[in-house]
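Q: Sequence in, structure out?
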Amino acid sequence: MDNQYQKLIKTAIQIAQSARDNGNHPFGALLADKEGNILLKAENTVVTERDCTGHAETNLMRKASQKYDHEFLAECTLYTSTEPCPMCSGAIFWGNIRRVVYGLSEEGLYSMVGDDAEDVLYFPCRSLFEKGRKEIEVIGPVLEDEAKKVHFGFWGQAAS
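A: Exactly. Output:
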């Protein structure tokens, strides 16, 4: 596995920890250029901003689309602590990102959330991107066990 992917996923996980420390859900994302330089970071702000769309990836794409043009974003990679949900995948698609690298898989996350949670929408990002007319490369899970750690205890399960 690419060392750069691991390094940047670790940074996304740190951003997720910051989100959790700030009272939000434990999700973080960053945008890197083709050389792997971090351009932008964003964390989940659902609770503190009282905004159900305040997911890390959507927050990141909002910033990225304001700062960079469509063609430049096609050369960038979005790194995220957890596989993007359908809403975030849509923002990534419309923002013209062509590569996504994630830590924790959707399946891994939902196994931690538990069966009682109603805000679960099973739809892997690969499946959504395949419906579009442009190719978006998806790499993940990357360092999934490490990416799980920021979620331990958050969703009610015991740390392991």
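The CA atoms of residues 83 and 105 lie 5 Å apart.
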